[in-house]
Design a protein that fits this description.
The protein has about 475 residues and is mostly helical. It is built from 23 helices and 3 strands. A hairpin with a 4-residue loop joins strand 1 and strand 2. Helix 4 runs parallel beside helix 6. It is elongated and about 95 Å long.
Length: about 475
């Protein structure tokens, strides 16, 4: 506890800090001497590195920690100039040692410790997780505990940007199997749900994409949790909330996940066109986002949630935006990355095929064919221009009917309602899908009065719902006999 308090105040410990400073100064002098002398062998450089890394076993203050890790990185780069070492692996090992030190000290990430953990995260970002080494990084119990405490606990780390950046470290667990542990996955989900409120799709600072970035790590973590079945309960709870028109944290979080993937695709397109992002990185981001969208919205276990009457509009809007943006980017990548582009077209085609096979009536398909028919046509035309034929979504007969009593029409979308709900502040009737879409916004408000929407500001209209059902039945019968 004493060590922890001393760390948090950025003060020196009872370990004679002058000794640490002396060792670091000597290591710095040795490194400079080796460079000036033109030392070609690496043995002495490794000795310098070992003397620095050994300092991570002592009670360092934040300033000493920063000096150690920066000097160690500088030494690794000097070794790289003289031999063909695996620099990514070396940086990951350095990050692992540094995290062991931080976990042992149990530091709270404030003051200079923010710079310290940011430097560690930068090592992992540059190394891209060193995924081909076959080595399990950040897997010790103490390191896992500390990473999760920083990610989930605002008292341990008040800076939410750094907490989001911890996903750079957590995504390493996707490969090593650590994320498959129920206890770890539950805490990661808790942190993701809390931090999602800070993930603004319009914030370029969060969405900037260069190499392995926050959002790529974020997608990897979500994808791993989804494929391992750890999000099953979240989906189940979200579906129950939507059905009862009682939007809770699970439903809001799923909506934020999908919205963020959508915003990320738009930013990838922007960064690629402005040459802020390389084509290779853009392809990696686009491919993963398409796969993630399919797993989140359309795959088995997801379709029931996003095909529910409330969530269908969220899923439809995301699907349209992602597909349109991807198809706008593909032509600029085709000449050098035709195979990858074909794979993305195939992913979109498979998602549409899945939608066509879902039981009817299908709310997600209804929204796509009713409210986004022009965008769906654009997707088919763009794919056709590339020599790829997309499947066609067929609207339900209900939505072929074009004329109906005005009271059956959604006040926002101007479409025929299925499950009408009255917005009490404006006395306007909207469909359940529209209401849920509004409730899932950051600040739910009535679109007509701007009054806050909550559980007491709307009510279902079962009698009107029955009228609409009877009218549709009669209209369909008349249409089929004429």
């Amino acid at each position: 506890m004493e060590a922890n308090n001393n760390n948090n105040n950025d003060t020196h410990h009872q370990h004679q800090p002058s000794a640490v400073t002396s060792i670091l100064n000597q290591a710095r002098q040795d490194l400079d001497s080796l460079r000036k002398e033109g030392e070609t062998t690496t043995r002495n450089y490794w000795n310098v590195l070992y003397s620095i890394v050994k300092m991570f076993t002592t009670n360092l203050c934040s300033q000493e920690f920063l000096q150690c890790i920066k000097l160690a990185w500088k030494t690794i780069m000097a070794i790289r100039m003289r031999t063909s070492i695996n620099v990514k692996f070396s940086k990951m090992c350095l990050a692992d040692d540094a995290l062991l030190c931080l976990a042992r000290l149990d530091v709270k990430v404030t003051g200079l410790w923010e710079d310290a953990i940011s430097f560690v995260i930068a090592l992992v970002r540059v190394s891209d997780g060193a995924d081909n080494t076959g080595f399990s990084f950040f897997a010790s119990y103490d390191v896992k505990r500390w990473i999760l405490s920083v990610f989930c606990d605002a008292e341990v780390c008040p800076n939410y940007n750094i907490r989001l950046d911890m996903l750079m470290l957590i995504q390493v667990w996707c490969r090593s199997g650590v994320l498959g542990c129920q206890g770890v996955s539950e805490r990661v989900i808790t942190g993701l749900m809390e931090l999602s409120v800070y993930m603004d799709g319009e914030d370029e600072g969060i969405l900037r994409c260069t190499g392995l970035t926050l959002e790529l790590s974020w997608c990897r973590v979500i994808y791993a949790l989804k494929t391992k079945g750890h999000l099953t309960e979240v989906y189940k709870t979200a579906t129950q909330q939507i059905q009862s028109l009682s939007v809770g944290p699970e439903a809001r979080w799923l909506a934020r996940v999908v919205e963020f993937v959508t915003a990320r695709i738009s930013m990838v397109k922007s960064n690629l066109h402005s040459r802020y992002m390389t084509p290779t990185n853009a392809l990696q981001a686009l491919e993963l986002s398409l796969v993630l969208l399919g797993h989140l919205v359309i795959s088995c276990g997801s379709a029931d949630t996003f095909s529910s009457r409330g969530f269908s509009r969220v899923g439809a809007v995301s699907f349209i935006k992602v597909c349109v943006n991807v198809l706008e980017v593909i032509p600029s990548l085709w000449s050098h990355h035709a195979n990858s582009c074909n794979l993305m077209l195939t992913s979109i085609s498979e998602m549409i095929e899945t939608l066509t096979s879902l039981p009817k009536p299908q709310p997600l398909v209804q929204v796509l064919t009713r409210d986004h028919n022009q965008e769906m046509d654009k997707i088919r035309r763009s794919a056709s221009d590339l020599g790829f034929q997309m499947p066609v979504l067929t609207p339900n007969e209900d939505h072929i009917i074009t004329q109906c009593p005005e009271r059956f029409v959604d006040g926002v979308t101007q479409s025929i309602m299925e499950s009408p709900v009255l917005l009490q502040t404006s006395q306007v009737t909207v469909d359940e899908t529209t209401l849920v879409y509004l409730l899932l916004q950051k600040s739910p408000r009535c679109p007509f009065t701007r009054a806050t929407l909550d559980q007491h500001s709307f009510c279902r209209l079962p009698e009107l719902q029955q009228e609409i059902h009877d009218w549709k039945t009669d209209a369909s019968t008349t249409s089929s006999t004429s």
